[in-house]
Amino acid sequence: KDVQKEREPHVYLSKEEVKEKIQSYNSSVTDKLKMTLNANGIYTGFIKVQMELCRPITVQSSQSQGRCAHSNNETAFYLPDGCVNTLHISSTNTVREVIEALLKKFFVADNPAKFALYKRCHKEDQVYTCKLSDREHPLYLRLVAGPRTEMLSFVLREHETGEVMWEAFSIPELQNFLRILDKEENEQLQILKRRYAAYRDKLEEALGGVWKPG
Predict the structure, then answer these.
(1) Sign of the alpha-carbon dihedral angle for 13, 16, 21, 26
(2) Coiled-coil stretches, from where to where (predicted)?
(3) Contact (Cβ atoms closer than 8 angstroms) between residue 138 and residue 100
């Protein structure tokens, strides 16, 4: 189970410290996704983000792939479990920019304010997660932690319902979301009905066997 971890203070590195860390980072890379330090002090590299989305995302119909939940001018579908996306970013890119880039890569029409980026760390047989603020820089966190994803990984999730700024969404977005919820509710009701119908059949079968004349 994830355990919430308090946000660690940002430590500013000198240009020489950044250069040394990048050299150390690149010497440990096993997947060829190395970092590059530019003359202006900005460095670029790669991060991998796991998509842990419980609710469907909305995309343009022509770009949709996956299990559809609604069909209109836009299509809502569920991303496959465990979907991981690799992004090439710079040290100046913020969490908010990373979220926007991920959504653009998947042709997602949903407002970026619906989503949050988390960092996940493993320590002493515990899994710690921490929601990153919009102003943090994921590539810096990747550099400091090193290339091993078991030390640090990134996860994209929806905001908790109480954290979502619903007033930031348009009326069509909210209406589409209500349609999706209605469909999900109906699907869950049908699953429950089938489950209890199966129980009833087995009980009636068992009762028939008990009372069957010998």
Answers:
(1) positive
(2) none
(3) no
pTM over 0.70: no
Looking at the fold, whether 25 and 105 belong to one and the same domain comes out as: yes
Q: Are 112 and 99 spatial neighbours (Cβ–Cβ below 8 Å)?
A: yes
CB 118 within 8 A of CB 75: no
| pLDDT at residue 212 in the model | 58
Residue 179: give the domain boundaries: 167-209
User: Is residue 76's pLDDT more than 80?
Assistant: no
Residue 214 domain flag = no
Phi and psi angles of residue 31, each rounded to the nearest 5 degrees, phi first = -115, 15
CATH number at residue 132: 3.10.20.90
Q: Are 130 and 4 in contact (CB under 8 A)?
A: yes
Angstrom distance (rounded) from CA 85 to CA 48: 6
Q: What is the pLDDT of residues 162-180, one digit of tens each?
A: 556 666 667 776 777 788 7
Same domain for 195 and 139: no
